[in-house]
Amino acid sequence: MNYIDPHIHMVSRTTDDYQRMAYAGCAAISEPAFWAGFDRGTAAGFHDYFRQLTQYEPKRAAQFHIRHYSWLCINAKEAENVSLSREVIALIPEFLKEPTVLGIGEIGLNKNTRNEATVFQEHLDLAAKTDELVLIHTPHLEDKLKGTRMIVDMLKGDSRVKPHRVCVDHVEEHTVRLALDNGFWCGMTLYPTTKCTPARACDIIEMVGTDRIMANSAGDWGKSDPLAVPELIQEMRRRGHPEAAVRKVVYENPLNFWRQANNWVEWADAPAAGAKAGY
Questions:
Q1: What is the pTM assigned to this prediction?
Q2: Are strands 67-72 and 26-32 parallel, antiparallel or unpaired?
Q3: How many CA atoms lie within 13 A of 215 on its CB side?
Q4: Which run of H or of E encompasses 5?
Q5: Residues 6 or more apart from 164 whose CB is under 8 A from it?
Q6: Closest C-alpha to 227, from 12, 15, 14, 25
Q7: 136: alpha, beta or left, given left = phi > 0 and alpha = psi -120 to 50?
Q8: β-pairing, 3-5 with 26-32?
Q9: Which domains does the chain have, with CATH numbers?
Q10: In this structure, are residues 130 and 97 in contact, taking their beta carbons and an 8 Å threshold?
Q11: Could you give the angle at the alpha carbon of 125 between the alpha carbons of 57 and 161, nearest 5°?
């Protein structure tokens, strides 16, 4: 079964990972702008990073017939520096017309601070003015529920935000309904220690169903698995979920969310929106 990984940081992965993902059936990925493993000190560093995401990584992925898309922002881990964040946000419009850019992300909160909230709202303002999709980062562990509530409140507090054009990522059992009940899409991140295992993600699917939900590996600088989505496929099959339900979560849902992007060009070999997969 082909699958999509809608949140993976390939700049932190080796080319061998692209090859392994291709062997496992990966058709496409999207890479949100993220931390570089250290705090960058200048907006020029982010400008080069945006060039890497929009110009270089799509070519590296294409060697293995994987489509590569990206999201642009200054992430929550570096948003405590508000002045630098504003310089970086000012750079983003230059890149929004790059053909593989899906929108603004991953924006959100890390430690739920006032500065992080300020930068989050300024990203939202840019997304609203340019009518871009938004990908949301929710905090880890004990900060997750509080941070997710803060994020949802800020989203609902901006009348320009269209919930169906926002994906709240890193949801878990105690936050998934906050996203879905407010009309947002959501992503489950299959990542050891700080996020979900494939088994927990499958539990969540059995709790809330398959509408507006997707799964990703978030493979980054930490201990992570770029083949986590295929592991979820196997867990869903082991539990007896129909192939159509599996495909909906790991392929059709992320694709249908992406189809709303301003730059979207339909794939010749992708199913039409709303079409049922045949087996």
A1: 0.96
A2: parallel
A3: 35
A4: strand 3-5
A5: 183, 184, 185, 260
A6: 25
A7: beta
A8: parallel
A9: 3-258 (3.20.20.140)
A10: no
A11: 95
Q: What CA–CA distance (Å, rounded) separates 120 from 109?
A: 7
What's the chain's Rg over C-alpha atoms?
Answer: 17
Question: What pLDDT, in 10s, does the model give residues 159-209?
Answer: 999 999 999 999 999 999 999 999 999 999 999 878 899 999 999 999 999
Tokens 């200048």 map to which residue?
42
Contact 176, 204 (CB under 8 A): yes
Tokens of 228: 């986590």
The Cβ of residue 61 has, within 10 Å, a number of other Cβ atoms equal to 23
Q: Which of 212, 176, 178, 221 is nearest to 196 (CA)?
A: 176
Distance CA 43, CA 200 (A): 38
Residue 56: DSSP 8-state: I
Q: What angle do CA 113, 134, 106 make, to 5 degrees?
A: 50
pLDDT digits (tens, 9 = 90+) for 214-270: 999 999 888 899 999 999 999 999 999 999 999 999 999 999 999 999 999 999 888
**What is the C-alpha to C-alpha distance for residues 235 and 200, in angstroms, rounded to an integer?**
10
Closest to 166 (Cα-Cα) out of 257, 33, 93? 257
User: Hey, what amino acid is at 211?
Assistant: D
